[in-house]
Amino acid sequence: MVAWRGACLLAACLLACPVTAGAEEFGCAGPFGRDASDAGLVKAFGSGNVRHEEALLVRGETQPVTVVFPNDQERRLVVHWRDDDRRQGLDFVVITSPGWSAGGAVVGMPIAEVERLNGRPFSVTDFQGSDHDGEVRSWQGGRLDAPLPGGCRLGAVLGINDADVDTTQWPPHADGLSSDDEALRGADPRLYELTVYFPGAGGT
Predict the structure, then answer these.
(1) Is residue 202 domain-resident?
(2) pLDDT, tens digit, for every residue of 15-68?
(3) Residue 118: CB partners within 8 Å, gap ≥ 6?
(4) How many structural domains are present in the chain?
């Protein structure tokens, strides 16, 4: 997973990304289908709304990505490709903007609402490190475990503000944390990243 899920992005999202009631549902078809391409995104959204960037990976390497709506913080999407050189074959899409909904989930949504949407508790990794983020390990067979229209799947990361982390303590859990953990709920985790991917594509 890319390293640009940084503390600044987390803070900005948790403080300034309210859940958008009219969020547009992300669809894994058409310009964002399995066989999507950079050229297809330009055709669908216009060259002014598509930009080439380099995403910083965990080990300091970079990867070519295509950013859709790069100047619109409400709609910005980052597309990763299976074929980096040709920028084609959708691997996964990272959503950090509140203007999109995936399976009903929207950036800025509190953990209790995500659990309600899922229909049951789900598990997340321990919230550790400077970013204070917790990645969803498993939807535990809930509604968000089901494929989205077009056959893609949903991953998510929740974040906690520094101030809340400083005042909340919980012991490490080798198997992660449950979304209904009382101490975790007290820290008010919220969605700050959604990842939409095709199984077997290698993106997540």
Answers:
(1) no
(2) 445 555 578 999 999 999 999 999 999 999 999 999 999 888 777 788 899 999
(3) 139, 140, 142, 143, 144, 145, 179
(4) 1
Tokens of 91: 């691997």
Dihedral sign of CA atoms 97, 204, 123, 187 in order = negative
The number of beta carbons lying within 10 Å of the beta carbon of residue 85 is 7
Residue 203 lies in a domain: no
Residue 2 lies in a domain: no
Residue 105 in any domain: the answer is: yes
Token readout for 21 is: 């009631």
Beta-carbon-side half-sphere exposure of residue 69 (alpha carbons within 13 Å)? 14
Across 57-145, where does the E strand assignment appear? 62-68, 77-83, 88-95, 100-102, 105-106, 123-124, 133-138
